[in-house]
Specification:
alpha+beta
């Protein structure tokens, strides 16, 4: 397998800034973002979170294209228009990630009601 096949291009949108990073295929998105200095948590949840186990729902991001959820929280998020848990997304194909402005814990408003 060549290096190109082992990594996946992920475009990260952080406010007005856009970066493209190479992520190892099969890696959890949360870990790849944190390792490269991107913040997926809010001010408090940055210090108190579940460590990527899908329990605290504070590492949310918007992603395109949609990836089929395999976690109960992500299935509900897709159904009700909320962001996805970055800790439950395995990077297999190129995608775009929008980091969200979070307040207090991990709260964000739904995209559509």
């Amino acid at each position: 397998m060549t290096n190109e096949q082992q990594t996946v291009a992920v475009t990260v949108i952080d406010g007005a800034d856009e970066h493209t990073i190479d992520v190892e295929r099969g890696r959890r998105l949360r870990d790849a973002l944190l390792d490269r200095g991107f913040e997926v948590y809010g001010t408090l949840s940055r210090h108190a979170n579940c460590g990527g186990r899908g329990l605290c729902a504070t590492c949310t991001v918007d992603i395109e294209p949609e990836i089929a959820p395999d976690h109960w929280h992500d299935a509900a998020a897709v159904q009700f228009g909320y962001p996805r848990l970055s800790c439950q997304i395995t990077v297999e194909e190129p995608l775009t990630v929008r980091l969200l402005d979070k307040h207090v814990w991990g709260q964000v408003l739904p995209r559509h009601l």
